[in-house]
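Good morning C.,

I know you're traveling, so I'll keep this short. The sequence:
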Amino acid sequence: MAIRDELLIDLINRTEMEGGGPRITIVAEGVVITGRLAAHRHWATQIADRLGDATLPDERFAEDFVREAAEPLAYPPEFLHLQGCQLISGASSLPTALGEFFRVPLSGVSAWSVR
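The tokens, ready to paste straight into the viewer:
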């Protein structure tokens, strides 16, 4: 997002206030990704919960996401957070289903559409 997109920033901030947002499709670095906007804390907490599962070898990484969830929100936001993501186009080496949660820097977003 070379040009500051105030409408997208407002959409992200409203998502933060309300805890969840609409479905959105973005173009980031030439890749089209779709998913639902997620609040930053929800995004980080959900990942921490998954990594914190004692049956997984990755549980020690959960601490990083717990710390991330506790960080104060930046204005303007530097990232948008998506859940239920799907890759629509782009590098063929990426799986179509990117996973439940995805983080994209706003500086890389060149276009977006709410659906």
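Safe travels,
E.
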